[in-house]
Amino acid sequence: MAANQSGLTKMEIIGYKKSTFEDEHARFKVQFNPTTFKQEYAVEFVEDAPPGSTDSPQKLKKAPSKKLNMTLTLDATGVTGQAGTNGSKTIDIMEEIKAFKKATYDFIGSTHDIPFVKIIWGVNTFQGRLKNLTVTHTMFKSNGDPLRSTLEASFESSKEASKQAKEHDLQSPDLTHLRTVKIGDTLPLMCNEIYNDCSLYLKVAKFNNLVDFRNLEPGTEIIFPPIV
């Protein structure tokens, strides 16, 4: 993350091919830092009220999630003196939008997916994926080409389930778990370790669409949903 000649640190948006945020695909450095930078934190609960009860004790359904909403401005009038992504003194708005979308939105043929995005700005680091993008053009050349535009982008946090579970120490059977099958593992045994109830293996098999759950292949990842 580099600073310009005035010492101002510019936000960088890096798109990766892998969910581990490895294998960089594209990089976008903003022309101007965001005019808005809004972070939302959400917690999802499972409602678990006994029949006839008026109370509804809340149990955590999954690890807390984060959302990031921000607005970026692109200006090709030349009056600001700010360079574009490629460092040129004049910029092409459509090329800037293309570069932003390559790092955040465009389909990657080799992975059949869109990028996993890391946003770095000062002490702020956000890892996630683009959820929504709205492009608004507000000033135009005589031929209709945009001279000034805004990008309103929303991102949702994205982490590998195993890392998220480790980070939040999710050991309760009321939370979602991800387990990798090891040699000798059986589904009833794994259910007993997580739920303390081996009889739930049929529900877990159905949840994961396991056809041959009696012969689990080592390395297979299995999701154990909350008990509700």
Total beta strand runs: 9
Please identify, by name, the CATH architecture of the largest domain: Beta Barrel
- Helix share, percent: 10-25%
Order of strands side by side in the largest beta sheet?
2-1-5-6-7-4-3
Low-confidence stretches: 165-171
Strand content: 35-45%
- The succession of helices and strands, N to C, reads EEEEHEEEHEHHE
Q: Whole-number radius of gyration?
A: 23 Å
> How many structural domains can be distinguished in the coordinates?
2
How much is the average pLDDT? Answer: 83
| Head-to-tail CA distance between termini | 45 Å
Shape: elongated
Largest sheet: 7 strands, antiparallel
Count of helix runs: 4
Describe the structure.
With 228 residues, the chain is α+β, with helices and mostly antiparallel strands. The protein has 2 domains: 12-159, Elongation Factor Tu (Ef-tu), domain 3 (Beta Barrel), CATH 2.40.30; 162-224, Membrane-bound Lytic Murein Transglycosylase D, Chain A (Roll). It has helices at 93-104, 161-168, 187-195, 201-207, and strands at residues 12-16, 24-29, 36-47, 58-75, 116-121, 124-140, 146-157, 177-180, 221-224. The strands form 2 sheets. The chain has a 7-stranded antiparallel beta sheet with strand order 2-1-5-6-7-4-3, with helices on one face. Strands 8-9 form a two-stranded antiparallel sheet. Residues 165-171 have low confidence and may be disordered. Residues 8-166 form the Contractile injection system tube protein N-terminal domain. This is Contractile injection system tube protein N-terminal domain-containing protein. Pfam families: CIS_tube (PF19266). InterPro entries: CIS_tube_prot_N (IPR045361).
